Amino acid sequence: MKRLKLRKEDCYKSLTDFYDYLAEQNGVDTKKVQYDVRKICCTQGVADEIFQFYKEQGHSSEQVGVLWLCCGPKANLEEEGFVVELEEGFFSM
After folding, report:
1. Do the Cβ atoms of 61 and 14 come closer than 8 Å?
2. How far apart are CA 47 and CA 73, in angstroms?
3. Whether residue 19 has pLDDT greater than 90
4. 18-27 contacts, C-beta under 8 A, 24 or more apart
5. 50-93, pLDDT tens digit by residue?
6. What is the dihedral of CA 58, 59, 61, 67, to 10 degrees?
7. What is the β-pairing status of strands 74-77 and 40-43?
């Protein structure tokens, strides 16, 4: 499992851009990668920033919630700040 500490501004993105950012930080080619969203966890701070991005783009809470259920990480890390944990297999080619 890989644990990454991020800055607030690293998280204020669409889910696709966020996952691409994580790939770039891990030296993974974003043009060929697929993400297994079952294998990523984050703190509530990360989730809040991504939600805020979508809300400011005009999406409703319901729309963001459905997107999160289908494509978002599990926001179950108990610590403060902006942290993600990537399990083996999150990135695949």
Report:
1. no
2. 8
3. yes
4. 18/50, 22/84, 22/86, 22/90, 23/91, 26/2, 26/86, 26/91
5. 999 999 999 999 999 999 999 999 999 999 999 999 999 999 98
6. -150
7. parallel
